[in-house]
Amino acid sequence: MAEAEREQRPLPEVEQSVTSIPEDHEATCWGCGLRLVFASYSPIYKCGWCGAVTQSNSQTARKPDSIWFSHWRRLRDRLFVAVLVLFMLFVICGGVWAVYPVVFSVSKFCGVFHCTVAAVLAVCTVTSYCLASLKCAGAPTDIRWGSYPVVGKGDLENYTFCTYCNKPKPPRAHHCRSCKMCVVDMDHHCPFIGNCVGASNHQVFVVFLISVVISCSYVAGMTIYASYQIWPSIEFPDLASSSRHSMSSWKTVLEMITTVAGSAFFLSARGLVLVYLAFASSSVNAGIAVLLCQQLSYIYQGNTYLNRLSSAPNALQHGERGLQNIVRFFGCPYPVSRVVLRLRYSNAAKLQDDSGSKLL
Ligand SMILES: [Zn+2]
Ligand SMILES: [Zn+2]
Ligand SMILES: [Zn+2]
């Protein structure tokens, strides 16, 4: 009788809500097609067989970008590339034209030496720029996916699915909407080279930055020296007079700046080009030097700019940080790698000895 009463009695609200949720959650792995069963709901899950990561809420294919968006990105890239190429040509041609009379006036050897240095720097910068710009940033290799017998155990370890390309996306790869492809080890999309910076062209991109920093430092030094040589003679009448001691320091500086700026009106076209190149190369040098330091810092940490952005602040690094990352990045010859590794291990052994002696 008690059993029958319990069956007829309506269930409390909480009990009803619990019974309405299924005990198991099912999903299909996009990598191998296996049906996965979970005890609780999770928006992200990893297949125990192939290792592919599935995001249940964003697994459907995305709409392609509009034509206007694609045109705008292409136009922006071409504009940046055109401005940079014109600037490089101006610095090379304008710099040689403006500086060479001054260096040849010192001596013939001096002139030939500086022409050779300028040619080497120009070739290095232009070549590394062309390689970074034209080389494919790093397309993922085509792999077979979507069927259990074909995909082996662990074949898609930590792969995700790119809903733009409808293809597997390797770990540390990102989809670039400007290049319309996934890029392995993508650092960022650089509009100045009109290309992504990824696994295949990251090294040449950093070489380009180093080349720009050295070239701009050289151009700044040479143009400042040449400007000094051809600048019209300047006289400071007020400073030379007896009222000099009564003038405040800021008034003295202002007087000097005004006199120097006034004398610039008497500069020839060559002199104006020199002044412009000195300012422009110093400014570009400062900006690129900051970018280069940032890039070297990420390489040292074994990370990329995009991974750093996408990972949580306290997340583990993708690789071990250290000097060996920079050696590996530049593909240094074997003896250099050995020296770095030996230094690293000797430091680690020293630290271990120190901690061991402290414990004792
Ligand atoms: Zn799977
Ligand atoms: Zn993609
Ligand atoms: Zn890109």
What does this structure look like?
By secondary structure, the protein is mainly alpha-helical. The chain has eleven helices and ten strands. The strands form five sheets. Strands 1-2 form a two-stranded antiparallel ribbon. Strands 3-4 form a two-stranded antiparallel sheet. It has a two-stranded antiparallel ribbon with strand order 5-6. A hairpin with a 4-residue loop joins strand 5 (160-162) and strand 6. The N and C termini lie far apart (76 Å). Residues 1-21 and 312-317 have low confidence and may be disordered. The structure holds zinc ion (ZN) (3 copies). One zinc ion binds at residues 176, 178-179, 189, 196. Residues 29, 31-32, 34, 47, 49-50, 52 line the site of one zinc ion.
Q: Report helical residue fraction.
A: 55-70%
**Biggest sheet features:** 2 strands, antiparallel
Radius of gyration: 32 Å
Can you count the beta strands? 10
Strand residue percentage = 5-15%
Across the major sheet, the strand order is 1-2
Query: What overall geometry do the principal axes of the alpha carbons give?
Result: elongated
Kindly, what is the distance between the CA atoms of the first and last residues, rounded to a whole number of angstroms?
76 Å
Mean pLDDT: 80
The run of helices and strands is: HHEEEEHHEEEEEEHHHHHHH
What is bound: which ligands? zinc ion
Please give the count of helices.
Answer: 11
As an assembly, this protein is single chain
Label the structural class.
mainly alpha
Query: Low-confidence segments, ≥5 residues, pLDDT <50?
Result: 1-21, 312-317
